[in-house]
Amino acid sequence: MRRAAITAVGHFLPEDRVTNAEMEKWVETNDEWIRTRTGIAERRMLRDPGKATAHMATEAARTLLRKRGIGADDIDAIIVATVTPDMMFPSTAALVQANLGASKAWGFDLSAACSGFLFALSTGASLVESGRHEKVLVIGADKMSSIIDYTDRTTCVLFGDGAGAVLVEPTEEDCGIIDSIERVDGSNWSILCMTGGGSLHPSTHESVDRRLHFLHQDGRHVFRYAVQAMADVSAEIMERNGLTGDDVRFLVPHQANLRIIDATARRMGIGMDKVMLNIERYGNTTAGTIPLCLADFESQLRKGDNLVLAAFGGGFTWGSTYLKWAYDGKPGA
Ligand code: ACO
Q1: How far apart are CA 48 and CA 196, in angstroms?
Q2: Which in 30, 101, 131, 286 has the greatest CB count within 10 A?
């Protein structure tokens, strides 16, 4: 059976760190509130006005290609999960293709907010499993600082910038992506959204005055849905694959809130020592969180390790993926 496996990872984080202490200078907040309510201590920010999501995605992909020891010409397709594309069109994937010089590749962007990377991974895996492609680049990248209102304390403390990339290739071995669940429910779209700049509310003086070009979130409401949906979908994928907490090497959760992650881990019957975390250092990087976790923990992973990936985000969108890791350690680093 031809399966799709992650065979390399790469990442990029802007150098500029914004600590909670810095945030205290911008809005009425404090380190204690941010840490206890979210688990975040600092986040990264891409301050260079000439650089955006495609830059971070390209750098993450470059690292990956170097580690895997292949060239950009070997890539068949590029999928970029993002809600902060450089521009409405062309796609971020097109810009990444040009930056890399990936002469044989096609590509597109995928918009599913914080579930974007999981949806993109599922799509990329299908292209490989079907036999259509040998090497698909799946990237999760967001420059959240471009859509955050830094006068709104309820959202600005939560998000950061960053990108992670994985390579998906075929395998005949007993590893790779085994199962996935994807869900969307648009009925609650308005409690987590950015309405400005699309075809319904094109950019006008009025749309700027109404602050429609910033992310809006009713955090309390989203929290209630997220905590239930992420735990449910993680339990569902374990059940239908006959997994217990003992079988799982790592939960790789979307990093929106430590309390949501903790509830998911408890429902799965695993301790926090088996949960990949980067929220403390990077905040919520939207489509970037899961591949950034994989990059951070790569050296601890062994071939055959069972991983459960889980996410919840705007849309609403949510999902989980069960995979067996396909290689040992951190090759080519
Ligand atoms: N500093 C200090 N106080 C604050 C801050 C802040 N930065 N932000 C809000 N508060 C205040 C509020 O005003 C409120 O005060 P009030 O009771 O006087 O009205 C109080 O703190 C509690 O606010 P809540 O919103 O109830 O706080 P909560 O405990 O719910 O935490 C949070 C807020 C962290 C946003 C949480 O609701 C959450 O994590 N929600 C889910 C986020 C999520 O999963 N998003 C999906 C992914 S994102 C994506 O898809 C792009």
Answers
A1: 23
A2: 286
* 183 in contact with ligand 1, CB cutoff 6 A: no
HSE-up (13 A, CA, CB side) for residue 8 = 21
Q: Specify the DSSP element, H or E, that contains 33.
A: helix 31-38
Q: Residues 120, 184: one domain?
A: no
Report field, pTM of the whole predicted structure over 0.70? yes
Closest CA to 56 of 136, 142, 114: 142
- The tens digit of pLDDT for each residue in 220-258 reads 999 999 999 999 999 999 999 999 999 999 999 999 999
143 and 181, same domain (yes or no) = no
228 in ligand 1 pocket by Cβ < 6 Å?
no
Whether residue 114 is contained in a domain is answered as yes
Q: Mind giving me the DSSP string for 87-135?
A: SSSS-HHHHHHHHHT-TT-EEEEE--GGGHHHHHHHHHHHHHHTTS-S-
Handedness of CA 297, 300, 302, 304 (dihedral sign): negative
Atom of ligand 1 nearest to the CA of 226: 44
Residue 29 CA: nearest ligand 1 atom is 1
Ligand 1, atom 48: closest residue by C-alpha: 313
Q: Specify whether 108 is located in the same domain as 23.
A: yes
**Confidence (pLDDT) at 1:** 84
How far apart, in Å, are the Cα atoms of 33 and each of 159, 216, 328, 329? 15, 20, 39, 37
- Same domain membership, residue 157 and residue 128: yes
Residue 93 domain boundaries: 3-173
Final residue of a domain: which of 119, 139, 173? Answer: 173
In a domain, 71, yes or no: yes
Phi, psi of 182 (to 5 degrees): -130, 140
Per residue in 16-57, pLDDT (tens digit) is 999 999 999 999 999 999 999 999 999 999 999 999 999 999
User: Does the beta carbon of 38 lie inside 6 Å of ligand 1?
Assistant: yes
